[in-house]
Amino acid sequence: MKKTLRLLALPAFLLALSGCQDEPEQTVQNIPSVEAIRVYPQNIPLNLEYSARTQGSKETAVRARVGGILLKRNYTEGAKVNEGDVLFEIDPEPYKVALAQAQAKLSQTKAQLTAAESQWKRISKLFEERIVSEKSRDEAKANLEALEASLKLAQAEVDSAQLNLDYTTVTAPIAGITSMETVSEGSLIAVNNQLTTITQLDPIYVIFSASENELFKLGSMVEKGLIVNTSAVNSTGRKKLNAQVRYNNGTLYPETGEIDFINPSIDETTGTLKLRATFPNPDKKLIPGQFVRLSLGNIVRKDALTVPQEAVMQGAKGAFVYRLSPQNMVESVAVETGAQTADGRWIVDEGLKAGDVVITNGLMKVRSGAPAQATIKEAAPAAAAEAAESDVQQ
């Protein structure tokens, strides 16, 4: 009976032994295989893009400076005009009459002043000879001074009448493109009536806003030497901050602009800072009021660590990546991402260091604290990064 029990127990023992021997092999098979990349510092051209809107570099409302009947419009609506071109003619006849009246009054005053000067000379001589009283002398002097003042007033009235007559010819204050007329010929217009608008399209402004937090972050990186401007020096001795524009359909506008104005204060309601870029617009391909995308150029992020977008995940505490330790253990690392590269990779500002291995594929198969087998890609610097390196060195 005991022998029978021993024979029955033998297969169970052998089965258990076999199970013990297979367990290490099964554990190895359960370690997930993933793809990873080793990060290293590169100089990366930044692609900072903003929503923007175009605006004429000058926009002037042409207004009537005198009232009257609008006799003639001398320009074609929507056409280009030069500074000083005659745009409108207002009926000048009432102003010619007013000028003639003022000139006649001036002539009259001049004649009266001539008589007063002669009288003053006679009275002064007679007073010295004690023939006339001091009162007569004072009256002659007062009359002379009053007429001298009247002459100045009459001359001012002539100048004013001449000015009003000149204002009946309305000229272009700036060069640019005219809008539709707002008052038709033959209409009676009043002083300060708007007649048309002239907009200067070359150069043209592109207005955009950047958030306070983004600008603070960029400024901090500039102070640390992590961001450099590779542009040439402009006429003021400062480095240009170049810009490019894309239409809403993605087409690139051929001309390069320059950031030439930064608002000195932040908008309290939006927390943004307004900036302006000026672009040459010789062919009038940009029109005021267009919505465009503006990107800043010649800005290089030095020693940037980049990872593919798919490597960055979002958790309850923010963005994180899975890093593989030298012992092939998976670690969850919180990261702070910055700008994106031209090919869509994230620049990691905080959380990683040079030489770290970041898992890029097979993320759903791993968990923090568990082992993983990785195929590590040792990527070579991209051509753009090499170009940026060259720019920084120069």
Q: Determine the N-to-C terminus distance.
A: 94 Å
The CATH superfamily of the largest domain is identified as Efflux pump adaptor protein, beta barrel domain
Which percent bin holds the helix content?
Answer: 25-40%
Output the CATH topology of the largest domain.
Answer: Elongation Factor Tu (Ef-tu), domain 3
Q: List SSEs in N-to-C order.
A: HEEEEEEHHEEEEHEEEEEEEEEEEEEH
Shape: elongated
CATH architecture of the largest domain: Beta Barrel
Mean pLDDT: 83
Largest sheet: 6 strands, mixed
Structural class by SSE content: alpha+beta
Indicate the multimeric state. Answer: single chain
CATH class of the largest domain: Mainly Beta
Number of strands: 23
Identify low-pLDDT runs.
1-26, 382-388
Question: Which percent range describes the beta-strand content?
Answer: 25-35%
Number of H- or I-type helical stretches: 5
Which value, in Å, is the CA radius of gyration?
A: 42 Å
Description:
This protein folds into four domains: 32-45 and 302-393, conserved putative lor/sdh protein from methanococcus maripaludis s2 fold (Beta Barrel); 48-56 and 199-300, Elongation Factor Tu (Ef-tu), domain 3 (Beta Barrel); 65-91 and 168-192, OB fold (Dihydrolipoamide Acetyltransferase, E2P) (Beta Barrel), CATH 2.40.50.100; 92-165, Helix Hairpins. 31% of the residues lie in helices and 35% in strands. The protein contains five helices and 23 strands.
